[in-house]
Model the fold of this input.
Amino acid sequence: MKRREFLAVLPSSVVAAQLLAEESTTPEKITVGANDWPWWRGPNRNGIAPAQKIPLEWSATKNILWEAEVRGRGHGSAIVVSERVFLATAEPEKESQGVLCLDRASGKPLWHKEVHRGDFVKGGNTKASHASSTPACDGKKVFINFLNNGAVYTTALDLEGNRLWQQKITDYTLHQGFGSSPGVYGPLVLVSADNKGGNGMIVGLERAGGKIVWSRKRPKTPNYASPIVITIDGKDQLILTGCDLVTSLDPLTGKENWELKGSTTECVTSTVTDGKHVFTSGGYPRNHVAAVKADGSGVAWENKTRVYVPSMLIRDGHLFAVMDDGVAVCWKSDTGAELWKGRLGGTFSASPVMVGDDILATNEAGRTFIFKANPKEFDLVAENKLGDEVFATPTVCGGRIYMRVAIKQNGTRQEKLFCIGTK
Done:
């Protein structure tokens, strides 16, 4: 699938801005296909997969095309580009952090590249891992963030696992953990590393060589959100929530568009937009979901719902979310009016993914609930169980679902990546 063909499936505003950014600043194109999932939250960075036919039922023995063992413990999601699947890994007993590459068709391991050895940062939340970031790929390079030896580093590998460059982003003081994922935009890789040590930073790095093109200091508070580029009125904006702020920057230069108080201190979720608002949610020191006016002029509405870890979804003026405690909810995005709530069950860390009219939401016990993206009523259509522990968000592309799960047997824990689909 050629790049131009891939761009044809994106909204026109995204296409125009992305082409302008790429063609005016770098000869290196982003070469990913229409059936790929190249970075955190998918092609349009909003958790919405292109409409496709996927299985609505699965188990460890039903609709599994392949499964592959994954070393150690990690909570980052898989990305899929061309014929390859990439996943961040961490082996606590070896203090090893790296990237695993699998064959997309068969799940066969192609290579595993160690990025860091030793110097694990100890402590933090028990739900955190040393490989909680999701890689990003521009079609030629794979980018990954790791916290190691008291600092955050971004590393670029080629498609064969050879290290091309590594850049220290900033020193990092651990609080809960680190899981911010890199973003790819035009010639840059975008990385955030908010932390309580006074060294918080968001930077734009050259994809080609890792040189820091721009950087911006952040407040001295812990925060976990990944940088997300969204398009509003034809203008691309890099949005970062948390540190008590909602911040909009030019993704190519780091220049501030606007910034205002509109979030809580610690946020995990990645924002979405309805074209008029950007949405922030957090869980410490207060629970909140808020709609910030997309020109930065103020907060349109806010409630006290706890959507701390799972990111939200938006479609046709309706905001869908899964609360951490297992309740699905739908609001009108312009007013915040609650349209319905529905009990799913369990505790959620993974973010929901929308595929056509279906929303897939997986809880920490490996149970995936499928309900309709229907603003009129809560309509649960399926429920499936796979694995014993899940923190990673599912990846959906090419008619397949890729799920990183942990299976516990006889006192041992083994992570696996499952490819769900129909033969």
